[in-house]
Write a structure and sequence with these properties.
binds calcium ion; alpha+beta; 6-stranded antiparallel beta sheet; Immunoglobulin-like; 4-stranded antiparallel beta sheet
């Protein structure tokens, strides 16, 4: 049950594209003549703390395009130590990506009302305190019950806009913040271990490691007061070793991924180390742990770290026995970029073809405003496959919406259709349909309301199998 639930949750690809269907998105202005407006159109954190992220959200997928795909970036050379990594080509490329996309730099004041978006967790409008997950805010009470934790303390080399970056500046209960002070994180004596008993519930070791990498690369001490203090007791974390261990032992959860989507909706940029923790290892020339769970799954696809062979093959006889693989895998597991996005005034949908265990499926992921959704009562999804021989195969599914008080992650219908609602959040759901093996060349997807009126319709082609 748990497994099924988890898989289901993982597939709730959450729909940042949602943003594209919202009427007002003031941040797109991208210039300094337009004031920052809290439009209410930011994406709420849709994730769940401690629920491992085993997929990339559609917005994450959209962020890495052209020369910024994982395939391209992971081929760029990193350093081999903490002193060479910041001078490496990979460091520059990741910095450029995060910096170029960073269109809104938050001020200290501006962060306060934004945490209800970035740090909510199915909390009825409350903020989840960074360390404990205790509900705090969202109203600002001048620090009496909650304040903002500089995960990277100002005294460790910050000195400009980096001080107020909402990616790093996290809301915490005032008591939790006070217990840490500006101590470096670590697991040896004298360091601050973030999972302390008094702070309670959550493992945030990986979270802080990924935040540090973000600051380290995104801001690169270019506008600060000198060098960042990074490693050791005078820095922010005990050692690179500890940082990478924490990355591995506390993998990205859906809440971190949801937060990345939320922050992106505000600032334009993402923490690349949340989407691809693999980059942390490549940046320092370390091998990516093959069993590390990451949103992209790239770690398990094999390390891209060059593996020089220090012991040449002593066998002087060339191997002439190499035969082609008699059973080449024609359909490796892939997660392709979104194949199609459809938008109407009321609802958006994305279609994605995925291959898993040599089996292809078509995912229809839709998103819409909560209030609007309830007016539909139910949605009908029709997928009509066109087969190679010209025949047709049709799938019909119904997504019930029901009353307004259903709980988060409730599965509403059978047949692989799931639906999720979160208080105050945009809503999204998905339908997964197996593609007839080897037969289908395209599909027409239609989303209808309860009366059978089409809300959206569009076709998606399939690659030759
Ligand atoms: Ca964590």
């Amino acid at each position: 049950m748990k497994h099924t639930m988890k898989q289901g949750l993982a597939l709730f690809l959450v729909l940042m594209i949602a943003v594209s269907c919202l009427p007002v998105f003031s941040l797109n202005a991208g210039n300094n003549t337009v004031d920052y407006v809290y439009s209410g159109s930011y994406i709420y954190n849709w994730g769940e703390r401690e629920e491992e992220a085993t997929f990339l959200s559609p917005n994450a997928l959209k962020f890495y395009t052209g020369s910024n795909t994982y395939d391209v970036l992971s081929e760029i050379e990193g350093g081999t130590s903490t002193s060479t990594a910041p001078k490496s080509a990979l460091y520059s490329a990741l910095q450029k990506l995060m910096k170029d996309k960073h269109r809104k730099i938050t001020s200290y004041q501006e962060t306060r009302p934004l945490y209800q978006y970035t740090d909510c967790e199915n909390s009825g409008g409350k903020i989840s305190s960074f360390y404990s997950g205790d509900p705090i805010g969202p109203a600002w009470d001048s620090g009496s019950t909650w304040n903002r934790e500089h995960t990277w303390p100002n005294s460790k080399g910050l000195g400009g806009s980096d001080e107020n970056d909402i990616m790093m500046l996290r809301p915490t209960a005032t008591s939790e913040n006070g217990s840490r002070g500006n101590r470096a994180y670590g697991q040896s004596g004298g360091y601050y271990f973030p999972n302390t008993e008094s702070n309670g519930a959550h493992d945030v070791r990986g979270d802080v490691a990924r935040i540090f990498l973000y600051v380290y690369v995104r801001w690169g001490n270019v506008d600060g007061n000198g060098q960042y203090s990074t490693w050791g007791s005078n820095g922010v974390i005990e050692s690179l070793d500890v940082l990478l261990t924490w990355m591995e032992e506390d993998p990205v959860d859906t809440w971190e991924l949801g937060r990345n989507d939320s922050v992106e909706s505000i600032t334009g940029t993402r923490n690349v180390f949340v989407d691809y923790p693999e980059f942390a290892f490549l940046l320092f020339g370390e091998e990516i742990p093959a069993d590390m769970t990451t949103p992209s799954g790239e770690a398990k696809n094999g390390s891209s770290t060059p593996d020089p062979d220090p012991t040449p093959d002593p066998d002087p006889t060339p191997d002439t026995e190499q035969k082609p693989d008699p059973n080449p895998d024609p359909t490796p597991d892939t997660e392709q970029p979104l194949d199609k996005t459809l938008t109407s005034e009321t609802i958006s949908a994305f279609m994605q073809v995925r291959t898993e265990n040599k089996k292809q499926d078509l995912r229809v992921i839709f998103v819409c405003d909560r209030e609007v959704l309830y007016t539909f009562e139910k949605l009908i999804v029709t997928v009509e496959f066109t087969l190679k021989d010209g025949g047709r195969k049709t799938y019909n599914g119904t997504l019930g919406i029901g009353s307004q008080d259903f709980t988060l992650f409730e599965t509403i219908t059978a047949d692989g259709d799931t639906f999720r609602a979160a208080e105050g959040c945009l809503l999204f759901g998905r339908a997964i349909v197996d593609i007839p093996e080897g037969d289908a060349v395209s599909a027409i997807v239609t989303l209808k309301d309860k009366n059978g009126n089409a809300l959206l319709s569009g076709s998606v082609p399939f690659a030759e199998q």
